[in-house]
Amino acid sequence: MLTLLLGLLPFIMVLGNSMLIPILPELEQSLKLTATETSLILSVFNIPAALVIPFVGFFSDRYGRKKIILFSLLFIFIGGFLCFMSGFLDRSDDAFSLLLVGRVLQGVGTGGTTPLAMALVGDLYTGEKRAKQLAILEVFNGSAKILAPIIGALLALFSWYFPFVVFPLLSIVLIMAISLKLTPQVSGIDVMKLSTYKDEVVKVLKSKWNLLIGTYLLGGIGLFILFGMLYYLSYQIEEIFHIDGFFKGFTFVFPLGALTLTSYWTGRRLKGSTVNEVDFLMIGSIIMLISFFLMIFFQSFSFYLGLLTVGFGGLGFVLPTISLMITSSVNDRERGIVVAFYGVARFGGVALGPIVYSLLLDKPILLFVLSFLLLLFSSFFFWVVRKEGRFVLRRT
Question: Phi and psi dihedrals of 193, rounded to 5?
């Protein structure tokens, strides 16, 4: 039961973005929005999450993981309810405003789900059991990436606002279950004052900056391109190729399925200390660069979807490897801070990707060139910075 509850926390976080990707064109049409306004529906969810994450660990250390998780789920419940109710307003301007308010509240709540699920695994398990539970969290995360577009597309057959009903329903079930099943849990690390925490943040970033900036940039750019391209794909398959409903959601299974499968395979391979993490980064980066370079020259939908699937498969090599390198390069006291700021980089990429790509919907070649150049820059920057400061991996 505890494994299921912990797994549903990252599951609901992934739903917050991936479930809406297929229905964005319908949202735009129903509420009479511009492409940029539509992209804000994703971004106002991710920006609050990015801002909240650095403080979630601090407050959970002081007040307990359970309390902060319950507060986070309450925000998701209220936000999801407001998003759903926005569909009943007559004026599209009012509906859009209420929808954005709900999405902001959802984002605030989401900042306390996945990070604290991982923290609880660290609190409750050790050794092989901890590794097993973390792998299960990744399974839930990956499953949500595959199922979310299908769920969103199916519910949108009733109306554009129906997918939002999932959030209050799932969050209220989790609130009740966690209240009953999860005992109060406090981290074993000494509780710090806020001023001390701030000093620790500055100290870690100064001492580890040459090690972390390259990985933060590579991970953030990877998520920036991932959600930017998914946003672009949503418009491609509906407006140009006229694929709608269930089949539209099913289309997303191919690139997201490749990302999930390679992430899971890479995570399994990285559990042993015999594998060179840098090799996985190199393989993944090369696959992504080749795929996005070819997209510049092949504009047909079949080529685009195939190359995007291969490219996201390459990203599946990169993201788990970066997570391991970041968490293994610092000690226990520094880990929470370092991982929190990596979360900021990831959510920042997810937030900005749809906004930037919305401005390039009618310029596909420029969009693909931008993707390729960003990948080239972030990969090159990582290798340059890595020579200046080597990661010392701590196998704990």
Answer: -70, 160
Q: What is the pLDDT of residues 338-390, one digit of tens each?
A: 777 787 888 888 888 988 998 888 888 999 999 999 999 999 888 877 655 44
Q: Which residue has the tokens 């140009």?
A: 240
Q: Determine the Cα–Cα distance for residues 123 and 60; give it in Å rounded to an integer.
A: 12
Q: What is the pTM of this model?
A: 0.80
Domain ranges of the chain: 1-191, 193-396
**Cα–Cα distances in Å, from 32 out to 20, 116, 161, 255?**
17, 38, 14, 29
CATH of 193-396, one of 3.40.50.2300, 1.10.1740.10, 1.20.1250.20, 3.90.700.10: 1.20.1250.20
Q: Where does residue 176 rank: exposed (0-12), middle (13-18), buried (19+ CB within 10 A)?
A: exposed
Give the Å distances, CA to CA, from 67 to 5, 10, 57, 75, 108. Answer: 15, 17, 12, 13, 15
The residue type at 163? P
- Rounded to whole angstroms, the Cα distance separating 270 from 213 reads 22
Task: Specify the CATH superfamily of domain 1-191.
Answer: MFS general substrate transporter like domains (1.20.1250.20)
Would residue 278 be called left, alpha or beta, if left means φ above 0 and alpha means ψ between -120 and 50 degrees? alpha
Of all helices (H) and strands (E), which one includes residue 156?
none
CA gap 258, 251 in Å, rounded: 12
> Looking at residue 346, what DSSP letter applies?
H
Summarised one tens digit per residue, pLDDT across range 370-382 is 999 999 999 988 8
Q: At what angle do helices 92-110 and 65-85 cross, to 10 degrees?
A: 170
